[in-house]
Design a protein that fits this description.
The complex is a heterodimer of chains A (337) and B (326). Chain A has 337 residues and is α/β, with parallel strands linked by helices. Chain A contains 14 helices and twelve strands. In chain A, α4 packs across α5, α5 crosses α7 and α7 packs parallel to α8. Chain B is 26% helix and 25% strand. Classes of the chains: A alpha/beta (337), B alpha/beta (326).
Chain lengths: 337, 326
C-alpha cells in the first residue's frame, strides 16, 4: 500500500474552543488508484490532505493517528525528511492556481526552482526538463510560455502549469485538492481528462478531493465520503452510486439536478451543515437524518465493514439494507423530532 | 406549450465596454459583452441563460434591471419600452422587476439587520403603512423558510444558504412580477443548492413569478427552466425548450452538454473535448465566435456570422454546419 492513514485526528485551537476538523479518519491509497474524498465545505477533506503533507499550519495540530507512506510514519519524520518527500514522492495541486503560483516570478523561474531543489540537476538540465513538462501537460508553444508570468495566463493554463510543477519530480502520489473548482466546465473537462491520462501513463496514486459527485463518478476508483470531520462511508465508486448506504450519501446523490433525468422536485437533505463548534454529540448527521433514533443522538457510530470492500458509519445501515424499499415507512416511524 | 404574451422582450440588444482609449479618445480596445441579442420571455416562464464565464449572461440580467444602459437595442417590459428611463421611472419599476445576486456574502449590507434590509424597500416605495410592515416582513421570512425571530440579526450571523434566502426575501419584498436570478446557487454547498432551487420553484408557483435564471451549470438550468438559451462570447448560440436540450444542434451546446459530469459511473459517454481556452472577447473578428474551438468548423465560419435558424418548433440554433432543418 502506498499510503495508509490510520486514525488521523487534526485539531484547530480557536477562541471558541478546539475544533476537530478531522476525527479518526482511516483510509488507504494504492498505486495507480484514484481515491476520491468527497464532502461539503467544512467536512475536513482539505485538512485531511494538508495533514498528509504536513502543512496544517500553526493553529492546527495532528493530535493522534499515523500516516504511513510506504511504511514510513510521516508524522514522526523530521522537517528535512518531509521536505525531501514533498515534491519528490508526494505532490499536491491546489484549488486556485492564481494564489498558489508566485505572481512575481516567471513560469520558468518557478519550474526551474522546483526541479533544482528536489533533483540533482544543473539549471540547464532543469530548464530542459521544465520545457518537457509544459509540453507534457499540453501547453501550446511551451518555449514562449516559459517567460510568462501567472497573470498572463488563463485559469486553465495556470492549472496546467501547477500540474507540470507538481509532476516535475515524478511523484508516486498526487493529491489534487479541488483541481477544477475555479474553472469553467469545458476547461474542467480538459483538466480532468489530462489528470486521468497522466495517472494512467505514470502509474501514480491519486487522492482527489472534491465536492462534485459528477467528477467522482467519472474519475474515481474508490470513494470516501466525509461529513463534519468523519468519514461516513467508503466504497468502490460503482457500488457507492448504485447503492449508497449512509443516509447522507443517499441524500447528497439524490439532490443533484441531472442532465439525463428530469424530476419535478429535487429531494433534499433538510437543515444545514452544523457550525464546527456545535456538531451534535452522537452521530454528527443525526439532526438532519430521516432515520435518526435515540441511540444516534447518544453514541457515535463506528465505521463498520458491511462487505469486504465497503464501510459505513451508521447504526441504521442494516435497516436501510433490508427495508430500502419501504424506507418511507421506516423513516416516518423512526424520526420523531 | 401554449403561446403566452411576452412579459419581457429584448430586441437586438448590444453592450460593449471600452477598455482602452487612444490619446484622441477613440476606443482602441472594446469588449463586446452582449452583441445583438434578441429573445422574449413569456409570463410565468423560466428562461434560462447558460454559458461560461465572460459570455455576457450576467450583463444581460443587469441591462434588463437598468444597472447598465445598453449601446443599442430595445428592452420591452409588458409592452412598454424601458430601455432608457430616468431615475424616477426606474425606481417605480422596482416593484415589477427585481434581482437575486450570486454571492450572498457581498450582496447584503453587513451593517443592516434583516429587518432593516427587508423593511427599507417597502417603506421607501410606500407600499404599506408603517404599522403593517412588521407583518409583511414576518410573512416574507416565512416564505423563504426563516424564523421570524432572526430578523434582528446581522448577515454575518447566517450561513451562506440562509443569506441567499434573505437575498430572495429582499427580492420578493416589493411583490415583483419578474425576477432576474443571477447564479443564485453557484456559491452554495450541494445539499443547500437543492433546497434553494426548490424554494425558487415554490415561490414561482405561489406568486406567479417569471424568472430569467442565469447559471453556468447546464444541469441546474435544465432542472428549473422551461426554455434555455446557450451563450458564448456575447452571442446566443442556441435557444431550445427544455426537452430540446437533449437533442443539441450547435457544436458548442454539444460540447457543453458532454462536459457536465453525470453522477453515475455506469454511464460512460463519448466526451467532446474542446481544444484551447475561451478566447478573449476583446475586439472579436468577423464570423462565428466559436469557430476557433469548434470541431465542425469550415472556412466560411470565420468569414461571416451564422444566422439563427429554426430546426424544430421553438428550437433555434446558429451554425453553418449543423444538420439542415427538416
Amino acid at each position: 500500500m502506498l499510503l495508509e492513514v490510520k486514525g488521523l485526528t487534526t485539531v484547530f485551537h480557536m477562541k471558541e474552543g478546539a475544533v476537530r476538523a478531522v476525527q479518526n479518519a482511516s483510509f488507504q491509497a494504492g498505486k495507480g488508484e484514484v481515491l476520491a474524498i468527497v464532502g461539503e465545505s467544512g467536512s475536513g477533506k482539505s485538512v485531511t490532505s494538508l495533514s498528509i503533507m504536513g502543512l496544517v499550519g500553526e493553529q492546527g495540530t495532528v493530535e493522534s493517528g499515523r500516516i504511513l507512506y510506504k511504511g514510513e510514519d510521516l508524522l514522526k519524520a523530521s522537517k528535512k525528511r518531509m521536505q525531501q518527500l514533498r515534491g519528490n514522492e508526494i505532490s499536491m495541486i491546489f484549488q486556485e492556481p492564481m494564489t498558489s503560483l508566485n505572481p512575481v516570478h516567471s513560469i520558468r523561474k518557478q519550474l526551474v526552482e522546483a526541479i533544482t531543489t528536489h533533483k540533482n540537476a544543473t539549471k540547464q538540465e532543469a530548464e530542459e526538463h521544465a520545457l518537457e513538462m509544459l509540453d507534457f501537460v499540453g501547453i501550446p508553444s511551451p518555449k514562449a510560455r516559459m517567460g510568462n508570468y501567472p497573470h498572463e495566463m488563463s485559469g486553465g493554463m495556470r492549472q496546467r502549469v501547477m500540474i507540470a510543477m507538481a509532476l516535475s519530480c515524478d511523484p508516486q502520489l498526487l493529491i489534487a485538492d479541488e483541481p477544477t473548482t475555479a474553472l469553467d466546465v469545458t476547461i474542467q473537462a480538459q483538466i480532468m481528462d489530462l489528470l486521468h491520462g497522466l495517472k494512467e501513463r505514470l502509474g501514480m496514486g491519486m487522492i482527489l478531493i472534491t465536492h462534485d459527485l459528477g467528477i467522482v463518478a467519472e474519475t474515481a476508483d474508490r470513494v470516501a465520503v466525509m461529513y463534519c470531520g468523519r468519514i461516513v462511508e467508503e466504497a468502490p465508486v460503482k457500488e457507492l452510486f448504485e447503492e449508497p448506504l449512509h443516509p447522507y450519501t443517499r441524500g447528497l446523490i439524490a439532490s443533484i439536478p441531472r442532465l439525463d433525468v428530469s424530476v419535478k422536485r429535487l429531494p433534499v437533505i433538510r437543515g444545514m451543515v452544523p457550525d464546527p463548534t456545535l456538531v451534535p454529540k452522537g452521530c454528527s448527521f443525526s439532526d438532519r437524518c430521516d432515520y435518526c433514533e435515540d441511540k444516534c443522538k447518544r453514541d457515535v457510530p463506528g465505521l463498520a465493514s458491511v462487505s469486504p470492500t465497503r464501510k459505513v458509519r451508521c447504526f441504521q445501515r442494516a435497516g436501510i439494507l433490508e427495508e430500502k424499499d419501504e424506507k418511507d415507512e421506516k423513516g416516518g416511524a423512526a424520526c420523531q423530532n | 406549450m401554449p403561446e403566452l404574451a411576452p412579459l419581457v422582450q429584448v430586441k437586438s440588444l448590444s453592450k460593449s465596454f471600452v477598455l482602452e482609449r487612444s490619446w484622441g479618445g477613440k476606443p482602441t480596445s472594446v469588449l463586446k459583452a452582449v452583441d445583438n441579442i434578441s429573445f422574449s420571455v413569456a409570463k410565468g416562464e423560466v428562461f434560462g441563460l447558460v454559458g461560461e464565464s465572460g459570455c455576457g449572461k450576467t450583463t444581460i440580467g443587469k441591462l434588463i434591471c437598468g444597472m447598465f444602459s445598453p449601446d443599442s437595442g430595445q428592452i420591452l417590459y409588458d409592452g412598454r419600452d424601458i430601455t432608457h428611463l430616468n431615475q424616477k421611472e426606474r425606481r417605480s419599476l422596482c416593484t415589477e422587476i427585481q434581482f437575486i445576486f450570486q454571492d450572498p456574502y457581498s450582496s447584503l449590507n453587513p451593517r443592516m439587520t434583516v429587518w432593516q434590509t427587508l423593511s427599507e424597500p417597502i417603506a421607501i416605495n410606500g407600499l404599506l403603512p408603517k404599522s403593517e410592515i412588521g407583518k409583511r416582513v414576518d410573512k416574507l421570512l416565512d416564505c423563504v423558510g426563516l424564523a421570524s425571530y432572526t430578523k434582528s440579526r446581522y448577515p454575518h450571523e447566517f450561513s451562506g444558504g440562509q443569506r441567499q434566502r434573505i437575498g430572495i426575501a429582499r427580492a420578493l419584498a416589493l411583490n415583483p412580477k419578474f425576477i432576474v436570478c443571477d447564479e443564485p446557487v453557484s456559491a452554495l454547498d450541494v445539499s443547500i443548492q437543492a433546497q434553494v432551487l426548490n424554494l425558487l420553484a415554490d415561490l414561482k408557483d405561489e406568486f406567479g413569478l417569471t424568472y430569467i435564471f442565469i447559471a453556468h451549470g447546464l444541469n441546474v438550468i435544465k432542472h428549473l427552466s422551461d426554455r434555455v438559451a446557450v451563450m458564448y462570447l456575447g452571442k446566443i448560440m442556441e435557444t431550445a425548450p427544455k426537452e430540446g436540450l437533449s437533442n443539441p444542434i450547435n457544436p458548442y451546446t454539444k460540447a457543453l452538454m458532454s462536459a457536465i459530469p453525470i453522477p453515475d459511473p455506469n454511464r460512460k459517454r463519448e466526451r467532446i473535448l474542446l481544444s484551447g481556452d475561451v478566447p478573449s472577447p476583446i475586439n472579436p473578428g468577423p464570423g462565428c465566435r466559436f469557430a476557433s474551438r469548434c470541431f465542425a468548423a469550415s472556412p466560411e465560419c470565420s468569414l461571416s456570422e451564422p444566422p439563427a435558424q429554426e430546426y424544430e418548433k421553438g428550437h433555434f440554433a446558429s451554425c453553418f454546419n449543423a444538420a439542415p432543418a427538416n
